[in-house]
Amino acid sequence: MYERKIIPNLNCGLDLVGEVLYGKWKMRLLWFINEGHKRPSELQRKIPDATRRVLNIQLKELEEHELVSKIIYPVVPPKVEYSLTDFGKTLIPVISAIGNWGDEYEERLRALILKRLD
Amino acid sequence: MYERKIIPNLNCGLDLVGEVLYGKWKMRLLWFINEGHKRPSELQRKIPDATRRVLNIQLKELEEHELVSKIIYPVVPPKVEYSLTDFGKTLIPVISAIGNWGDEYEERLRALILKRLD
DNA sequence: TCATATAGGGATAAATTAATCCCCTATTGT
DNA sequence: ACAATAGGGGATTAATTTATCCCTATATGA
């Protein structure tokens, strides 16, 4: 695994949240798990732009941060299920607020973002 | 300026928010500007962990995304003031929700994050 | 005359994150 | 025998983001 060379700042709430929520797909993973899409293959189908590899990595980090828990069923073919921990559930309203803002200003945001890409 | 090589996904609200809010210091900049710290040097003092360079870059992006506006007073020594646009103000409750969650679980988050750094 | 404050930016290096590529396990169905 | 399905991971490269270093300008105060 990658080992940090710079110790992160953990001064305020925003720093702390950043540490667990930064990551291109993390909020979406939490969101879809909360919606009941528990298995890795389901999550991959919900987020086709990400590779399985990255999803695995980000899921593992979410697990280490105790936001999700993982159950591995000892069956063949393998079966795995993720679910939110109680701690992870407390994040849902926050993610919801973020997503709602994005949805509300969707048109405007899309235009602004595209404009900046030349 | 850096020119992207991969077109970002802009599928859902979360993608869109990410485009304007990703950036290590952006939420803090918006927050402090909202609190009335308008001048670059003030902002730098509020965020001493960031270099002026980075703050300038991120402020510029916030400006291009119409979240903040910038006034340059033609005086010497130079004077500049940032303020939130109406659009930018709509983000404050969202940032607030994020920061509050971080503050609420500060102890736990700090412990979890530090544990993962070995 | 020299340091300080104010605001800014180019060029480059370093750090971090994400993407690519390829490989493994074991069972069921064709 | 072989493909498909399910879940996973090492090694490496590419992309992106931050940090460093250094330089510009002008006025004021010591």
Automatic annotation (TrEMBL), chains A, B:
Cross-referenced SUPFAM superfamilies: Winged helix' DNA-binding domain
GO function terms (MF aspect): DNA binding
Superkingdom, taxonomy of origin: Bacteria
UniProt xrefs under PROSITE patterns: HTH_HXLR
InterPro entries (alphabetical): HTH_HxlR, WH-like_DNA-bd_sf, WH_DNA-bd_sf
Residue intervals of the HTH hxlR-type domain: 12-110
Keywords from the UniProt entry: DNA-binding, Transcription, Transcription regulation
PANTHER family referenced in this protein's UniProt entry, alphabetically: HTH-TYPE TRANSCRIPTIONAL ACTIVATOR HXLR, TRANSCRIPTIONAL REGULATOR, MARR FAMILY
Name of the protein in question: Winged helix-turn-helix transcriptional regulator
Species name: Flavobacterium zepuense
